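Weekly structure sync, notes
Attendees: PL (lead), two postdocs, one rotation student
Agenda item 3: pending single-chain targets
PL asked that the sequence for the first pending target be pasted directly into the notes so everyone works from the same version. It is reproduced below exactly as submitted, 278 residues in total.
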Amino acid sequence: MLSKVFPVEDLRSTARSKREQSEFKSISKGKALDPFVNDGWQQHRQGTNTVRLARAKTRRVLFEDRVWSLLYKLGFSHLSGEGGAELSPDAKTADYPCTQIHVVGLDSEVAVAIKCMTADTPRRYSQFNSELSEHAKLRQAFGNSVARQYPQPHKRTAIIAMFTWDLLLSDAEVERAKDEKIALLNEKDLTYYELLVSHLGEAAKYQFFADMLPGRRVPGLELRIPALQSKLGKYTYYTFAIEPEYLLKIAYDGKQKEARWWLFASQNPATEGSYDPV
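Predicted structure, written out during the meeting:
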């Protein structure tokens, strides 16, 4: 069973808090501040009966919040709440452990389960392969839970993904992710999608899908329509009628990411050097 996943309409306050660089809490006036100050909190402002405290988010929390905020801006219909989602065992998989998923996003076509991993400084992580394997095991249980709890006329495609920040991965580890069919992205990819969504809004979601599902069929995006085949010189072309909304979903090409990045960078000099497409 998948829990702690909510319609985005219920998550507006969560979205505001995740956009912040700091986290906040309120305590009763007169309560001793020393224990909070020792834990990194600072007084932000005073109210009539409470004191508002603030402290900078840790790198891990900040990274998870950025990934969550990206899915929110991309227009997913359901997202995990504060602290992530939980995938619990059912009667058929009683030996399956209860697992926290950092970020979950549901759309009419796909369901995404994302694990976020960070390091304070660039370094190797010896347990990466085991973390990768554990995350890959969620695929069937996650897909089944989503299909049962959030039914659609067509089956959603389950995406198992990992976002990393400052983890130095070997070629073998990257290949292992491909073998496990896990979409592996890093902080530079996240920066790219944040820039893309700032330009295109929710339309950027379909580029996100194209990059996370290269060459894979998405049942919710399948459509058969009549078309007229013609030739113009050495080129073959097709004439057909299609709704613009559907065409938008299938028109992106993941191979064009690098070209689009440099286009955006040329339009936004402040971004120069902040992303190195791979």
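Discussion points:
- Residues 253-267, 269-278 have pLDDT under 50 and may be disordered.
- The chain has two domains: 8-28+43-57, 58-222.
Action: rotation student to compare against the earlier draft before next sync.
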